[in-house]
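ingest -> validate -> predict -> emit
validate: passed (alphabet ok, no gaps, 267 aa)
predict: started
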Amino acid sequence: MNYIDNIKTGRYVVKDGMTMPELIRTLRSGNQAPVNLTFNNIRTKQALAGRISQQLMMDSITLIDALNDSAMVSALGFDTNTIPVMFIPNTYQVYWDTGVSNFLSRMKREYDIFWNENRKTMAEKTGLSPIQISILASIVEEEATYAEEYSTIAGLYLNRLQKGMKLEADPTIKFAIGDFSLRRILFEHLSVDSPYNTYKHTGLPPGPIRIPSIKAIDATLKPEKHNYLYMCAKEDLSGKHNFAESFAQHSINAARYRNALNKKGIY
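emit:
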């Protein structure tokens, strides 16, 4: 059947009871079965490329090079810092041998579908662009252990942005240092020289500190209305937060949390 001259890459389904001629005709046709590509809980471009390369015939280094290519990501409407927000965590049907260029174009189409007129309108009401919403959502998601706090934290950070205050978000320090395992942010960490250090720089960082989930993005688009400007992890170490409108109350909350860490020997 001249299969040796008609080999095509791809992922093919071999059905029970299929005859050899049927199998060869399937392989010759190039009629692939799509892969259910899934990615979520991703922090870095390197981690994203690794997750994709595990599911597709795509080299992770080639994908990383593309994500760091200024001209390529600019054509998609992003820069090398913001490009991670183009990837909306979900499950997509993709052919196994899809090339990098086609893959990025597909992800851009999915991004445009996600950012429909309704979400764009909601973003506009917050005073942020879709890209900025995703950047803020990435901080919100890293800050919160529980999704029920997403909208409260989003409202707090928006309050700070509107007042021209620094975000002073601990997760951005972890990202700047490159160590997400830190359980306690110390003064020495706050001095890290990075545009992602929100203790030094006012406004949003230049890019996301993780690829935010749909839940985090939608919660950031619907921020809770309140007057909170400060937050601190609860002293019960539950992962939830105490919120405060004044620095005086925040100082009390922070002291309780520090004491709890000290008692647990967490430094």
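The beta strands are 35-39, 90-94, 230-233, 241-244.
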